[in-house]
Write a structure and sequence with these properties.
Blueprint: H1 6-10, H2 18-31, H3 41-57, H4 60-69, H5 87-98, E1 123-129, H6 131-136, E2 138-149, E3 154-157, E4 166-173, E5 176-183, E6 192-196, E7 206-217, E8 226-229, E9 245-251, E10 257-260, E11 263-271, H7 272-277, E12 279-285, E13 288-294, E14 303-306, E15 322-329, H8 336-346, H9 362-369
Parallel strand pairs: 1-9, 11-15
Antiparallel strand pairs: 2-7, 3-6, 4-5, 8-9, 10-11, 12-13, 14-15
Bound molecules: zinc ion.
Length: about 375
């Protein structure tokens, strides 16, 4: 998608003053703030877009480059990362925007300063799934030990940074006095510290609790894939946000079915008489057993394709097939009577191989399998 014009994003004209730009951005940031639009991807995109536009237009040098060259000014390592800003960058920018107007806790989620919201750490678990569960999708209830704020823990504004999460330092350089901001080393940027906590809580006021988390696993997942359950990782102290629960998918080997992408393979063994006379056989599928017909005179190596009996595609389009590989099983030993019977057939012309053009070669079959 083409990048939108930064002025257009903020709804200001090219001659707008820095004050007008700031005001316009403040309006957008409030309107599309994630706290106000939970789980709204469109709002999140707009929020990020506005932040990126403000990042450029609020900086005289970047603005001048943008006015002259447009978006090209920042492509190819030109300073600003073209992939947009992450949430931490955006929130850290807020001290500047909301510091004055919203001081004193007027803006939810930031406590009125320039602090960034501390995020709890992520938790990782592995979930083993059978092929049937993968094929049909499943909801798993998993016991998770996660850190939560201990009952009786209270937090107060950090006395070192006074809740801003940052410490400002003034240094004298040859260019003059420079002001630099660093993350507060007492509250680590949260703006809050522990007021009271029970004895069994850790230094952040957290303690382990066991919780049953319900995880919806869509059909078609693949071994090694990672799903994210937002907010089910460790809680953060104070008004921070919880980390995520990262679920790694592990696929249990199936007794008879082998997975290859969305397709499944099944090795079917038929006896020599069954191959010669034809029969029907019960085979496993991910939705239960089905009976299939084996034509009289079936050749070893034939592949029967059961359409749509494979794994649904993870992106929701279609389903793979189940490929049944026919193997004619030949006995290694014979009794006297059997030996005599086959000896008598040896010279019978009817048993001489006469491959037909419809009996595809091995390579044609392989080609077929992937079509
Ligand atoms: Zn602090």
């Amino acid at each position: 998608m083409a990048k939108r014009d930064y002025y257009e994003i903020l709804g200001v004209n090219k001659g707008a003053s820095s004050d007008e730009i700031k005001k316009a951005y403040r309006k957008m940031a409030i309107k599309y703030h994630p706290d106000k639009n939970p789980d709204n991807k469109e709002a999140e995109a707009k929020f990020k877009e506005a932040a990126e536009a403000y990042e450029i237009l609020s900086n005289a040098d970047k603005k001048a480059r943008y006015d002259q060259f447009g978006h090209q000014a920042f492509e190819g390592g030109g300073g600003f990362n073209g992939g947009g800003m992450n949430m931490d960058d955006i929130f850290s920018q807020f001290g500047d925007i909301f510091g004055g107007a919203f001081g004193g806790g007027g803006f939810s989620g930031f406590g009125g300063g320039g602090q960034r919201r501390v995020k709890g750490s992520n938790l990782r678990i592995r979930v083993k799934l059978t092929l049937e569960e993968i094929a049909n999708g499943v909801e798993k209830k998993i016991k998770v030990k996660r850190k939560v704020q201990a009952k009786g823990t209270t937090y107060k504004t950090c006395t070192t940074c006074h809740g801003s999460g940052q410490i400002t330092r003034i240094t004298n350089t040859i260019l003059g006095r420079m002001q630099t901001a660093a993350t507060c080393n007492v509250c680590h940027g949260a703006g809050q510290i522990i007021d009271k906590k029970p004895a069994d809580a850790d230094e952040q006021g957290l303690k382990f609790a066991e919780e049953t988390v319900s995880i919806k696993i869509p059909a078609g997942v693949v071994d090694g894939m990672q799903l994210k359950v937002a907010g089910k990782g460790n809680e953060a102290p104070g008004n921070g946000i919880s980390g995520d629960l990262l679920v790694a998918i592990e696929e249990d080997a199936h007794e008879t079915l082998q997975r290859e992408g969305d397709n499944l393979h099944y090795d079917l063994y038929v006896s020599l008489p069954d191959a010669i006379l034809g029969t029907s056989k019960e085979i496993d599928t991910v939705t239960g057993k089905v009976r299939i017909k084996i034509e009289q005179g079936v050749q070893s190596g034939k592949i029967l394709r059961l359409r749509g009996k494979g794994i649904p595609s993870i992106n929701g389009y279609g389903r793979g097939d189940l490929l049944v590989h026919v193997n004619v099983w030949t006995p290694k030993t014979l009794n006297k009577q059997q030996r005599e019977f086959f000896e008598s057939m040896r010279e019978d012309e009817h048993f001489t191989p006469k491959p037909e053009s419809t009996d595809k070669s091995f390579f044609e079959k392989v080609k077929d399998m992937f079509s």
